[in-house]
Design goal:
The protein is mainly α. The protein is built from three helices and no strands. It has one domain. α1 runs antiparallel to α3. The longest helix is centred in the N-terminal third of the chain and has 26 residues.
Length: about 55
């Protein structure tokens, strides 16, 4: 049971980090995003790579 709770907590924390990263990328000013070579349309892909490594 402890492993299940630990696993669930880990998944919830990763999902929160993913959502936060997507929001931050989308809220980034366009000129800053382009300077960093980040396209806001790729926010989900970038967040997944950052949080889940995929």
């Amino acid at each position: 049971m402890a492993h299940f709770m630990s696993s669930l907590r880990d998944r919830l924390q990763k999902r929160a980090a993913y959502n936060r990263t997507v929001r931050e990328i989308r809220a980034m000013p366009l000129d800053v995003a382009l300077d960093l070579n980040i396209y806001q349309e790729d926010a989900e892909k970038i967040a997944a790579q950052a949080v889940y490594g995929r």
